[in-house]
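Hi R.,

Here's the chain you asked about this morning:
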Amino acid sequence: MHLYLIRHAHALDGDDDAARPLSAKGRSQIRALGRFLRGSGAFEAGEIWHSPLRRSADTAVLLAKRLKAKARLTTVSGLRPGDSPDSIVKKLLALRRPVAVVGHEPHLSALASLLVTGKAAPPRFVLKKCAVLRLDRGGGAWAVRWHVSPELV
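And here is the predicted structure, written out as tokens:
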């Protein structure tokens, strides 16, 4: 099982946090990330989960388009910045196919830390905006396969 944890791309500031759209910088980040992942063949998720916040949904949609992926996009509860990662872990353990999760900090770092170390805190990972962390599960344990930050692509 492969899991891709993707932090949303750069977004505009705004009073309504849930409605903040991606900035031009964020759209550029997605183009570069999509080009890199498509060219490397390193992305194989058939489903992309995202939080209900606009910047996360926009990131998921644009990334799927850039990858030319036929991945199903799904809004999933429990992916907001302050949500506990426990409910997502339960959903992930039931899966047998690769999935990508587009979300926010500090939630994604807590989720990755919980999966790999068994504890959400202190966080053992830092995901910059538009970064991807791939985790693989085998033998009941999760391990880091690779981590790509936007400045590398």
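One quick note: The mean pLDDT is 95.

Cheers,
M.
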